[in-house]
Design a protein that fits this description.
With about 200 residues, this protein is mainly α. The chain has two domains: about 5-45, Homeodomain-like (Arc Repressor Mutant, subunit A), CATH 1.10.10; about 55-185, Orthogonal Bundle (Tetracycline Repressor, domain 2). The protein contains ten helices and no strands. The protein has helices spanning about 5-20, 25-30, 35-40, 45-60, 65-70, 75-95, 100-110, 110-135, 145-155, 170-185. Helix 1 crosses helix 2 (about 25-30). The longest helix has 25 residues, at about 110-135. It starts with a helix and ends in a 13-residue tail after the last helix.
Length: about 200
Amino acid sequence: MLTSDQIIEAAEDALRRFGPGKATVVDVARALGVSHGSVYRHFSSKASLRAAVTERWLERSHAGLAELAAGDERPPERLRNWLATLFAAKRRKALDDPELFATYCTLASEASDVVAEHVAGMVGQLERIVADGIASGDFDATDAHAAAGAAWTATDRFHNPVHAGDWGDAGIEASFDGVVELVLRGLGARVAVLEGPAA
């Protein structure tokens, strides 16, 4: 029996082969050996299928971050490691396969609701870390939600695909360290800056 996961996987393959401008539902159906009507029984439109592909890509890109956010490291180290892991994952995808990264960025630009929900989840993970830091006395912030949103915005250069062209630049790691130091100091953390982004 045809499943949604099988369709999403076939759609990912079609996007890799043909690119976002040419891949069609017919391509997906042909790869699965079914009619395009069978695909539409799982996804009401081409847009909804592409949104599902985007959602899966975002989840895979950020695998492990929720566990880091819920970890038992002191909140300042946990926050820095979370941001470093996010940056490293985005950077790998952008630099290792720029064409595929560009394809998924195109899909993400079409699926604004999916992206907004995903970003809300990411900020929620940051909020958990900040709230733990407030509770432990490691952070002086008083509003965990506002502080998490500010940390997300302040580090935009290191996770927003708009800035992917900068991620291979010499000095980007030093820039990352400097911004994270400012974020930690802004939260009132009394810690030294740790080492550069995770490899």
